Structures
1.
Amino acid sequence: MPNSSAEIEYLENKARIIRHLIVKMIAHAGSGHPGGSLSIADIIACLYFKVLRHNPKKLNWEDRDRFHLSKGHACPAWYAALAEAGYFPKDKLLTLRQLGSILQGHPDRCTPGVDVASGSLGQGLSVALGMALAGKLDKKAYRVYCIIGDGELQEGNIWEAAMAASHYKLDNLCAVVDYNNFQIDGKVSEVMDVSPLKEKWLAFGWNVLQIGGHSMEDICNAFEKAKEIKNKPTVIIAKTTKGKGVSFMENVVDFHGRAPKGREIEQALEETDISDLEG
Amino acid sequence: MADLIYSRDVYGKTLAALGRRHRDIVVFDADLSGSTRTSFFAREFPERFFNFGVAEQNMFAAAAGMASCGKVVFVSTFAMFATTRALDQVRNSICFDNFNVKIVATHAGITVGEDGASHQALEDVAFFRALPNMKIIVPACPNETAEVIEEIYSVPGPVYVRLGRSKTEILDRKYKFSLGKGFILRPGKDVAVVACGIMVKPALDAAEELAKKGINVYVVNMPTINPLDKDLLVSLSRKVKGFVTCEEHSIIGGLGSAVAEAVSEASPCLVKRVGVRCQFGQSGSPAELLEKYKLNSHAIVDSVHQILDEKNSP
């Protein structure tokens, strides 16, 4: 089914809101990981406001689609989406990383909507695999979505999970690689090259889709196509820009793990302004 | 000679029986199902058994995902791989989330035998004892193993059960296993010998030998190392001159450490630890290795004498 332009615009606006909230909460917290949060804003907006069957009022609904953020450091994007979707009040976002907050520095089950903690890279695809196996076992129709980082692909655990997912023919599992080509120490291609990604995933028995990770149309279409594939898991390799949406953060490795400060905060808030959407 | 039985056989049979009663049990193994005996469950419930191949990190993190969907996941492999290979996954995906994952590892300790040091887990209890939410149980005999496996199904959160490779005797016990409880197998007065796993039998033998010389020691089976039965230890500490702990594990971080920590905080007294010094094992028959690493009744008797000598010297 083609996506209507109204729906695309709706989702793009959700992504804008998520970006704005990411900047706001990380700036307020004074620490965090803006680069990799901003790079997944469009994907997570599409998931939470179109793809996922979920109900913020029924956290333990057995038939809900599962989402797991394996690259846990990008949790500001997840928290923003959860708040925007109504899992908890938006004012909680400004408690990010504070003592006793429901919004920990890395995902924790104390956050409504977070089913499994993450943060130590490489484990999340396995966690999603466990959820997908449970779905098959219980003959449930739910699907499992998992966002993994490109630097994270350097973890051996990811490839153990990749092997098992195709072995068990988990067509209810869809992974998204946030291919922004930066990790803490520099370019992924220079620190430890993970390419060629398509060939690697194909060799592991996955259905592979390659898209531009900031084109809402591409993202929607990819998730739709993934649902049609039978007997194998799908990976969407999404080419993204680290820090997308804040000009001085884009492709700047320093903003992998540092909050904007002073004048930077003003500029970042200006560039992600959503006042036209409010009121 | 008493009958010798594999505790892992008992584990496999008990797990399959539990599987008949509880549809929410799912079993994971990493290419060792024949050895760990999860193959019994697999044969009966192939749809609820998942072999992960030689990929423990994936297996343990997937157990977390499966448990998040309401399953009780029994995960088995050798103790060496259950602890060190996937420790990050067990810590961050299982313990942190307090998921219902029951890790039942076999082939723990020096009695793995001929396979040698790379396969002899002597530090596993130490690693897991530092993890919040992790319960740790070391059954003393095949019958106790059956009771433990039955009980942990309904114990919430992660549990680690440590089993050996070799056949062992069924102990004559007058109690039923209960999590967090130590059991006095033999009353005494001079020293309390606290043992777990396969070291309970030599502890009883040592007590018998000492009794012939007029020395009466308590023998306590302490199958649960976490949570430890501190009340029992503290009450004993007020009656005896010291403790001897016995375990088929490093003296660092295991039962000996746990007992020493508990009594030193509440009611300090001497604690001598019988166990493997901080060293690696090697190939050999289980009997040879137990002798070589002084995991036997002689070492326990010597430690009791040391306590009495130190306490009796001016």
2.
Amino acid sequence: MGDVKLENVTKRYEDVTAVDNMNIQIHDGEFVCLVGPSGCGKSTTMEMVAGLTMPTEGTVHIAGREVTNLPPKDRGVAMVFQNIALFPHMDVYDNISFGLRLRNFEKDEIDRRVDKAAEVVQLEGMLDRMPDEMSGGQRQRVAIARAIVRQPDVFLMDEPLANLDAKLRVHMRTELQRLHKDLETTVIYVTHDQAEAMTMSDRIAIIDGGQLQQIDPPLECYNQPANLFVAGFIGSPSMNFVEGEVTENGFTSEYMDVEFDPSNYGVSAGDKVTLGVRPEDIYPAESGRSISSPTGEIRTKTDVIEPMGDEIFIYLLLSEEVETDLEDPAASNQLLISVPPDSDVEEDQDMSVVLDRNKIHLFDTESGQAIEHSLVASPAASGASGTSGAESDD
Amino acid sequence: MSTEQSTEQTRSRGGSGAFSGATRWVENLNDTQFAYLLLTPTLLLLGVISIWPLLSTFIMSFQADSIRGAAQIGEFVGLENYIGVLSGAYNTVVLPQPFFDLSSPFTSALIVTFIFVVISVSFETLIGFGQALVLDQDFRGRRWVRVAIILPWAIPLVIQGLIFYLLFQPGISFLPDMLYNLFGGLGWSQTPLVSSSNALLIVILADIWKTSAFMALLILAGLQSVDRSLYDVAKVAGASKWQSFKLITFPLVLPTVLVAMLFRTIQAARVYGLIETMASCTTVPSLSCLVVSTFSVRRYGTAAAIAFITAAIIAVIVSVYIIKFRDEGGV
Amino acid sequence: MASEGGTATRSSDSDSQGGYEGWVQSSIQNPDRAYRAAFYVVMIFFLVTTLFPLYWLFILAVTPNNMISNMGLLPKGFNPGAFVEVFTTLPFHWYMFNSFILALITTVIVLILASLAGYVFGRFDFKGRGALMLLILAISYFPPAAFLLPLFRLFTGNIEILGLSSPMLYNTPGALFLPFSALSLPLAIFILTTFYAQIPDGLEDAARVEGTTRLGALFRVIVPLSAPGVATAAVLTFIWVYNEFFFSFLMVDGQAKNWAPIVWGILGYQGQYSASYNLMAAAGLIGVLPIAILVVIAQEKIVSGLTAGALKE
């Protein structure tokens, strides 16, 4: 019953369009993350589901009912907020039971539900505490209890873990997943942290500039990003991009060439394309011989080396001078690669690398749309990601 | 679970009467409509009790006085009242006669008000600052010292006037004789409350007594919002108490002090009640006094014009403040 | 209450070291002592100057009236009966009661209206917000006299609206609490605006998602959380009304039964019984008493309320 449907939803403020023609369908019991950089419109989207913001155009359905113009209280949703938003003048019991009391539930029923919710989030025996007497994690649990006690159709969570410290955040992440498994209620979860989105959700909706970029299961977003934005946003560290163009023999750029037959991939000579490859899909030439379809060797020089313990990140320079541009990573001459922790590397050393052809992505530089996710010969018709809802139209 | 959900929904939709209909209507207003709905009672009250009377008075200021006869106000005369007051043409005919050894009642009212504002606001700021610094310290019995120091602020104006009347009334108090013996040579009167210059000083003194407390209260609030750790930083950096006052306390409370001075200036420029209860409007004629005294002889047009001239003067002061101190922040 | 200053206790401990010279010596070595001494001198100066006028009232009140002439710093004789006589000569308690009721009514009206307006100004961005706030501020530029004549005519039934003459409010509470409310409203609005603006949006959103209406969120969450601000606004409004002179003086004929407030009680002694200085003084002291109690109870609230918000904009 807890499905959510946004149809052509647009929110315009006086001079900015915060959300632009958003179409999302979320199934009952699904855990969907809305993820994107700050200001991308993900929170506005959630607020329109909650009823805290009214859309300029479009409709919102919850549980099969149109709720576009209903106030939040009549939508059957519960929400957990980034700043936790416990009422500081009420104790835990009053906070959790707030919504039930507003709806004139009977005392016994309220007690029963509050006890149950407190048990679920392990807050038994703390019902008479005030919020300022509790730790951050406990407060967060109260906020969750307040949301589950009403047994809503949909849970909305707006960066609920953003204000917690790193350790607690990981812990609460697991707890939320367990909770979702137990309750089987639809969850819409807003975060700017792609790692959180990857680990928790059934599907990720990546939003940028008020527009939906892609909505797919996490691995699909990772392996078959719909466009340059998704490719760069999902995955840490980010995918490497190299701008170049298509020739008769494949891809060429100032620093590297990758051979392929353009006709197999629906591109033709002269097309401007961006090649994308993730750090773990680049290998030092000697170890790269073990992979099934390496590209030709690319000559580089090591720059900065970052040992992470379980792997080592190496920044490679494709030419002598460092040219980085944070605004447009594809214009830089750096490659980031990840190698096993026992690799023997030093700074300022020559190094040849190969790319895994299976994992090379091609994007149309102009539109940003994905063209191909593998350069191992396959039918030209395979086309772009081919997944749902991802065609962002300009 | 789904059964319980539906109970919630029926409950929340239940009670469909006129009330929930109205609630639904209110909830569906957009922000601007909702804002104006909530402002309606305020605007209604201000409209009837403040804005309408002001407009009405404004119109009156362009009408002739009508001292006799049934009509309270005469025909439209344009700017005549303003010109009459400002040029001095109304001096003998219209304005109650003079005080303070100055030929024009309006200019003397202007000067009285100016002296009152400048002296009282400066002293109140200095004393209030001093009091606030004292109250900002931690010491035993601070609560009671604080009560004592801010108490005058809460004392009704009429009682404040009574106190200073009783202090400076010859025969009752030792003060008038003492002051006469000390300052008689400088022109201090034996009956200070009926001497314009003396009474003005006494009114100022009374105002300082009461209103320094108000300044202290506001400045204390400003002092207490200064982050205490800044003082530790200063101490670690080797600043003396005076330096940390000069470099931290003063700049940080300056905006508060300026706002407080602005409030006070607006109030002081309208001084009336204190004068009326201690001395009288004929001894110490302020601008507001002039409004009331012309009003009480039914020269409504003139009274209205003076009221608006007063408001214009206050508006000028406020604008000067705001423009001058905008950079200091706060105002 | 006030945390006790460690320095204060320390310096008084060492006072016993002996003699003026010893004190000077140690002051030079320890400039804090000099600061402390100066501090107490200044504090005592302020206490004397603020309290002396009230002490003066006390001297006059307890001195029998026929003994009052060229009074010095001590009462001549002791006649507490003046404090009783105050109530029998004039119905002074009625004047006080009137002031009290008027202040209460005004405070309630102002809090309700200013809560709604402060909520709107503090938490909404809408067309005309700036202009309206400026308008409300501008009203305070005008001398009360500028409102007087139209209001007087309105309250004496001399204004016709759609053929009906305005209600006769002169000599009723309405002629007083309406102008009181209108004139003290702007300050309360500014105080509450700053307080309400500081409540995180999340709390209001949470309340609404949990099931309140927008107004419900205001009165269930925002107002209770701004309790210090509401208390500050309430106390300031109450004191303002109790202090008010202009309309209190001009909108009633001065009789206690016609809701004349304390202004008229005091003026009654200053006018009719102008030779009864002891009664005047006693009435003054009695009139100060309730407001003094309010200050004792609420001073902490007022200061912290102003600190927390009112002055930040």
